[in-house]
Amino acid sequence: MKTFPQEQKTSAAYLDLATNDHGAEKGLLAVRALGRVKHARPRMVEIGPGGGSAVEHLAAQLRESNTTTVDLTLIEAPGVVSQSLLRAIDEFGGAGSCVLTHGLAQDIGSLLSEPVDVISASALMHEVYSYGGGYGGLRAMMRTLPTVLRPGGFFAYRDIYAVDAPSLHERVVQSYGSQSWLLFLRMFARQYLDHGTHPYHHLDDELVADQNSRIVPVGELDIRTCAVITAPVGLFREVQRHYITLRDHVWRSGVLGFRPVLDGQFAADWLDFAAGHKRVHFAFTETDWLSDTQKAMLRAVSEPYADHFAVDGDIFDEATDLALKAFLAAAEQGETDCLATWEAWLAREGRETYAYMTADELLATVATHSVEARCDTVLIPVAGDDILTSPRHYYNRFLTKRLSNPLPDGKQLMLFQNVPLRDTETLMRGLSAIQTLCSKTSLARVHAAIHSRG
Fold first, then answer.
1. Domain range summary for the chain, segments of one domain joined by +
2. Quick one: how many helices (H) and strands (E) in the chain?
């Protein structure tokens, strides 16, 4: 079983292990886009290839079809090297050419010598938002993309699903009764609001927590009492995603006294995929935040499997939630190992904003800002199946069992085409494709942007 080193998210070890999965999903729209490119040898760019799982999937698909040869350029952040990515590059040969270059995503205009047919990226925008200048960095990125895509080219994009709401600032009410979630809120929310890159700065974005009919500061929540919290729906989305990433980070560290298998074949031992119900494979570690009673119980409900154990995922989640509460309490009190693990997670992911736009906002914003590039094109999906949602069934099952009204977890995938403004037929198909997801206000923004360019 592989161990997970506590390093920054740009480290090779993190890219090789923790983020190097879902290659088929990451590459789905890029493969579809290549099938719609008209000439024989397309030029493609992948921004942020990570551990290379999408590169491997693309190569496999191209070899299987045996119809297209692709010249692929990979753009990775300076200083980031992944061994699994280097292997994927070596294995790409039969599908075309593949070169790796280092630079910042927002500088793509200066990194490419000529326009390309397809740009593919996963989680690009929330990375640019969190680390590359907030909304200003996003707008610059959206204005740059049309300049490096050929007319008719494609931008295949995948990121975390935001929320099904008109705006991330819409105020909603959530109740929290789980002690581990209350403890996480007490430790995380103030850190994120004070130090994270996020859009929740207005008076109406204030997080208001109520316990026993009394408003209390979120940093003073009593974990023994249910809390009713009012806040923007996007902020609750951040709490959910950060709790999950912390839980997985702590699991990988082994500090709780066990280490689940979160990568590879054993990570997908499904009992019922659609229901998100799976068997968890794990091994005990020397560090121990499980009590003797809890460890004995976990052994009793698990089965030996080769050099480790396997257990029903629901039982595992229930047992390990108690250990996570003990971990958080110890980190809050300054216990050395737990505090170090908590701070490593904070440094790597705790200040990121994962969901900063609804699907409506993302579609309208990409379209309107792409027109501002003055390339006489607009980035817009042109078919209904260019906009997809991929739910995370396991996480949704976990959240449903712990929160009164959880927000659905998943990925959203969008394939934008760089449509020439003179191509009225394709433009009409694009506007038809987005109208079911976009509000009337957003559709009006897109129409106004397009007509402002004639």
1. 12-161+356-452, 171-350
2. 16, 17
Q: Report how far residue 26's alpha carbon sits from residue 74's, in angstroms, rounded to the nearest whole number.
A: 14
CA 180: distance to chain centroid? 23
In CATH terms, the fold of domain 12-161+356-452 is: Rossmann fold (3.40.50)
For 73, the 3-state DSSP assignment is strand
Instruction: Please state at what angle helix 233-253 crosses helix 313-332, rounded to 10 degrees.
Output: 90
Give the DSSP H/E element, type plus range, for residue 279.
Answer: strand 277-284
**Percentage above 90 pLDDT, the chain:** 65
The C-alpha atoms of residue 376 and residue 374 are separated, in whole angstroms, by: 5
CA-to-CA distance for 362 and 320, rounded, in angstroms? 37
**pLDDT one-digit tens code per residue, 284-308:** 988 767 778 878 888 999 999 999 9
Q: Tally Cβ neighbours within 10 Å of residue 35.
A: 12
Q: What amino acid is encoded at 144 in this protein?
A: T
Give the model confidence (pLDDT) of 313-338 as tens digits: 999 998 888 889 999 999 999 999 89
> How many CB atoms are located within 10 Å of the residue 25 CB?
17
Does the predicted TM-score (pTM) go above 0.90? no
The amino acid at 270: W
Summarize pLDDT for 225-250 with one digit per residue, the tens.
Answer: 999 999 999 999 999 999 999 999 99
Using DSSP, state whether 117 is helix, strand or coil. Answer: strand
